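The protein record filed here.
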Amino acid sequence: MRETLDKLYTGAGLVAGACIVLITVMILVQIVGRWFGIIIPSTEDFSGYLLAAASFLALAYTFRHGGHIRVTLLIHLLSSSLQQKLMYLVLAIFALVSGFGAYHLCYLVYESWSFNELSQGYIAIPIWIPQLPMALGAVIFFIALIDDIVISLLGQIPTFLGLEE
């Protein structure tokens, strides 16, 4: 199970990286195209969609590799047992908030699909298509948080704490 989850987080991170590369390529093609008088429609729209996808898909990968900023200025003043209890509390609250957000993003995708909403750019596409990677990234991040809670409850060091300096 551990290997499957790690592959899920890494895969989401790789797709996020590919989205950033696609943004770069699209913008470069648009710049070169302008030199020759060619305008590529909806480049800004698709770049925005890819940026949203990259941001959400990278959440779990970044969390598992300790890349999120943690403010630990005051927590080191607490006793070890109080630090651990606070960590459980913060992880639980964060998982609840993340799960709430993931649920509503999935519902947003469903609503966009059921109402057949289209984007407002030059190229009208069903809006659920760019919303889907956001919802998927939020669900994967929620899974990563639950994963760390389970790891903590089993007595192991959560991934983000094991990577601290």
